[in-house]
Amino acid sequence: MKQFVGIDLGTTNSAICSYDGENVRIWKSPEQNDVTPSAISYDKRGNRYVGKRAYDSTPQNPKNAALLFKRLMGTKTQVHINAIDKDMTPEECSAEVLKVLYGYLPEEVRNDSEVGTVITVPAAFNQMEKTATMDAAKMAGIGKVALMQESVAAVMSVMRVKQTDGMFLIYDFGGGTLDVAIAESIGKKVNLLAHGGIAVCGGRDFDRGIFSQIVRPWLDENFKLPSDMLTNPAYESLHRLSLWAAEKAKIELSGKEESRITLAEFEIRTADMDGNEIYLDIPLTRDDLNSIIEPKINESVEKVLEVIQKNNLHVTDFENIVFIGGPSNYKPLRDKVSEMLSIPGVMEVNPMTAVAEGAAVYAESIDWASENRHRKDVRGQVKFDDDAVSFNYIARTSEEQTKFAVQIKGSIPAGMEFQVNSLDTGWTSGRVNLENNKIITLSLSLKGENKFKISVFDQYGSEVKTDQIVIDKISAIISAIPASHSVGVEIQKSLGSRETKLDWLIRAGDHLPKKGQRIYKATQVLKANSTESLNFKLWEGEIEEPVSDNRFIGVFSINGRDLVDGIIPSGADLVCDYEVLDSGNITIEVSVPQIGSSFKSERNFYSRQAGAVDFSSEEELDALLKDGDALLDRIEKLETTVNSEKLQRAREKVESALNIAYSDNPDTEPRQEAAESIYEAKRLLYEVKKENIMLVRKAEMLELKNFYEDVIHQYVTESEDRDIQTTFRRAQTSIQRRDSSFDGYIEEIRSKFYGILWAQDWYIIDDFKYVSKHGNDYIDTNKFNELVSDGMNALSDNRLGDLRKILIQIYSLPRKAYAQNEGSDFVNIMRG
Fold first, then answer.
1. Domain 4-202+296-364 classification at class level
2. Residue 618: CB partners within 8 Å, gap ≥ 6?
3. What is the pLDDT of residue 262?
4. pTM over 0.90
């Protein structure tokens, strides 16, 4: 019998299950636990340990261990292991966990080339994080792999045990992330209506809260510790051990009202500044924990309500909340969420293994022979007699019975018959006249595969054709999976304009999988063997403007070195075929008919590294602070025009992010949380602008007019002045009429401003001097330095025409992720 594998690759714990079409099996760790800690450690001799032993040794051996690397997937942040003197990427760490999990399977399953494995990812994971997870699976040597959102897997798991129809909410609160899904069950057919989540919101954040609010104050009260304890190497072990002890005490509160955070002196082996040996013996009550976790619970409920409201639903529409994830074992958490949402909660599945179980069940629904891992076709067909006769049937169903229908095209001899026999039970339909639209009912007695033999008899009663079919009786069918993110390509608004916009390939909520085609045009010449490129910049998010407020994914570039010969002329068609898979991953192929070539994203033309962030980098921390400060200025500016509760929430998120970023905590988690808060603030800012569009447009007009009078007016001719004033009047009229042409007029004005400035030599010189000081923002620093050197020579020789060309080449260089918000890379495509 075929086996299908599901893996929940978790932040703190991971699990692996298999499914044979009938039953799900959890494969336990050597310690006979359902889950395996997502932890790696090395001893002094370089021996590697993965799982519980690694997790238990981490506090005493922090410099030789890796934890919580799932939160770093899709980034360039690495973990240094002293014992082997090596930097490990999050993908390499995840691959080690996957290898160990896969090793739990029987050898015949591991070595079966037909086995398909589904690895789950949070709904909040972006494109880079999903691609990184696939990279980890390849490193682990797992053969056929597909990704699936954890929320989808959770729904599949719930439907195995849930017998009633209705609307229900999946609340998956894990160690590192929150996933929310809305599902509707009708006759075991499931519509996944929506899903979403928070990338940095989980049980790990509770541990950090216990340390900062309870452990750290107790330590300061009982011992003399330096103010820089978190960054002081002498106390690094104390910090790690305290977090470990806090987590253990937190878990104990799932079963009792009070626990203690304890560590003996011989475990810590660290003295304070007065030479006193440090220990921990701190009471922790449920009241303490509830106050610590309340902000994250409130944040999670806010996200749930957002998902509900976006889908025009109300909390009264739901039958219950299904809780999943380790922290959901804590009853006060479940009670608090149920109370805030006014929806009763249930524990219908094992919260620790439900996602892995659902992933294994989902793996059965995938056509593993398909290149992009599409779902199996629900309908089946068998043809006879050169397609004159076909039998149509439902190949996958959750019902006890299914229909089997005859379709005849043209004419066949009278008196022909057919018969269907169950190969499992011996049931037979008996011989039935072969007539068009003849329907018989087949009973499905087995879970999983039900095999039938089809026989066709001629008018003389002789068997002339036979075939076999398999009908899968499954626990549930998910009819549609909604996209959790919008993904778009950045394009020029008009030829020659520096103003850009997003051309969305898919919008959040669109049904997956989705295929499509877009035709773009090159707006500059690309010569073979040149260092220039045509750039398809990919962004993820819902923010229309500015584009850079969305999450930068990466650049899919066609470089001059990718061309064998010839050129791609300006204006050439760039035919972009794309597919967004069930997992939300996107594949792209760009064809250029004019040169007869095509370029695929999976062949290294798509640079995930261009979008990846290194949260351990001080350079990127500075950029985070700069981004936060600039965002505060934008909020303050909008506050002079608009009074909004959302604007206040945006301010609070930015201020919280800046407090985290300015703290002395060297860990990457707080910085990642700060980056997420800044992104959420940008999203709120965009919503405020949309909701107050008239006020915002009036303010924007006033600002542009003032800039025109103060800067631009002195450089324009009379005819240019008349042209610009006319466009201003049209924009003003569009405000009064409340029509959609305003943005076009504003873009036209800005384009004219830029064209006027670009003609001024002082502007070119100032722009070049500014750009030349920001070499660290660019990925290819060698090329950047080469262009800057050429620019310096052009400037000293007063060759300002050449300097303009050099500036354009610098603009076209891909920039690092943290620099994206400072302005767009040179975008040189537009819609065809």
1. alpha beta
2. none
3. 95
4. no
